[in-house]
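Quick one:
INPUT:
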């Protein structure tokens, strides 16, 4: 796969939201409640993405000019890591994470923390993250479970 990694541009917004929402729909629906899905889809909105682009680093992976994966580094946190569901398991998530971790190191950061969803935990286990606690929030009376994870760089 001839994948190109680059930084987010304002014109990526629409494609990025579609990538995130489509991936949530396919990957989270079997695991989380409809309320949790809506919570995430609301959380990843234009305002939040533009704020993160201004304050941190958003990476985009492209294949033949099409956005296929993304991830964000905000200070010592990595967030919003999504790989097109049809292209998962081919090393794209790891590629994005490695690049974000390298950028964190360049910024003098020596520990990454993140919130992992239930389906993503094994991915983060595989790339060296440690689970230091399990947590949940309540969304409209339903539990939304996740893991607090970290990794020393
Ligand atoms: C989680 C996600 C980002 C992983 O990306 P990916 O491209 O599928 O993962 P990769 O192919 O880079 O996998 C990297 C390693 O993790 C392992 N891995 C990935 N998913 C795994 C799973 N579900 N179970 C076990 N191992 C897994 C791979 O085997 C690989 O191990 P290796 O390096 O020893 O070969 C992707 O599946 C995704 O977008 N999921 C839905 C959205 C999501 O949950 N995002 C995270 C938000 S917290």
């Amino acid at each position: 796969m001839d994948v190109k990694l680059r930084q987010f541009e304002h014109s990526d917004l629409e494609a990025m939201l579609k990538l995130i929402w489509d991936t949530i729909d396919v990957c989270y629906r079997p695991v989380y409640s409809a309320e949790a899905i809506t919570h995430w889809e609301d959380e990843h909105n234009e305002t939040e993405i533009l704020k993160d682009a201004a304050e941190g680093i958003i990476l985009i992976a492209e294949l033949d000019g099409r956005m296929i994966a993304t991830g964000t580094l905000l200070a010592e946190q990595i967030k919003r890591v999504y790989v097109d569901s049809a292209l998962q398991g081919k090393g794209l998530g790891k590629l994005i994470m490695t690049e974000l971790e390298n950028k964190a190191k360049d910024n003098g950061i020596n520990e990454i923390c993140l919130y992992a969803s239930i389906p993503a935990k094994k991915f983060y286990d595989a790339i060296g993250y440690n689970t230091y606690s399990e947590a949940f929030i309540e969304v409209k009376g339903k539990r939304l479970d996740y893991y607090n994870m970290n990794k020393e760089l």
